[in-house]
Amino acid sequence: MTRPITAGVDGSAESLAALAWAGREAVRRGLALRVTHVWRYEEHHALDTGDRETQDRWVRDAAAEAARALAERHPGLDVTTDVLEGDPVDTLTAAAAESELLVLGSRGHGPVVGFLLGSVGQQVIADAVRPVVLVRAGDEPSGEAGGREIVVGQQGDLQDSAAALGFAFGTAAARGATVRAVRAWTLPPVFAYSPGSMKLLDEAGGLEPYEKKALAEALEPWRERFPGVPVVEHIEMGSAGQVLLSVAGRAQLMVVGRRAHRTAVGARIGSVAHGVLHHAECPVAVVPSAEGS
């Protein structure tokens, strides 16, 4: 069964930008679009926020209007609305599991919903088993113009970034874009040197050639699967987050992998994804590893 793209909306400028982005992506991929508004009843004595029935009507009217405007912009697009009351993290995480990808505003809040979509989005990213795309307010179709790249971070061995690379290549193929695959590297601490690792480095001719070889091997299956997608291999010394942000200005989309770390206070999405989400101006896709960890 083909999964739709789901856009989470709350009436904010950020979520409307996310909805517009999701609409364009659904058209490119030939997928249906589901407009999802998650809300929970909030009574505020100082403001006239209405009773539960009134708030429900406001939410449904807002979701329907957003879907109607999008359908007018893309006449052939299959658009449905889904208004759900409940915990936003749990509800959006469940929606992501049923979708090809979930699209959210990177920051935003609605007066009825009463939560920051940005903070909710961060937790959803940590828990989602499907890719989540975060879009800032002000994102425009011009940001997807020719010449702008799909930038994807690659690290580790063949499997470590396979999900992120697959998403990046699939998106680039749908858009006719170039993939810039970025692998950052640093000098290992002295204690990391071992006879085995030194032998591998010597065989590769040194650290930088070793990193180039590792990136080329990771890209090989995706080059074969998407032969029409141009690829730029980008090797640079530095922290992964800094190197990715240094090329963010040429990106129409930044793609990073995610291995969520569980702690006593909840899940953490990792420093690279966290840094890119906070500082990249372009939309950012966070893709869970293949095993969904």
Automatic annotation (TrEMBL):
Pfam families assigned: Usp
Alphabetical list of InterPro entries matching this protein: Rossmann-like_a/b/a_fold, Universal_stress_UspA, UspA
Ranges for domain UspA: 1-136, 150-288
Similarity annotation: Belongs to the universal stress protein A family.
Name of the molecule in the record: Universal stress protein
Protein source organism: Streptomyces hokutonensis
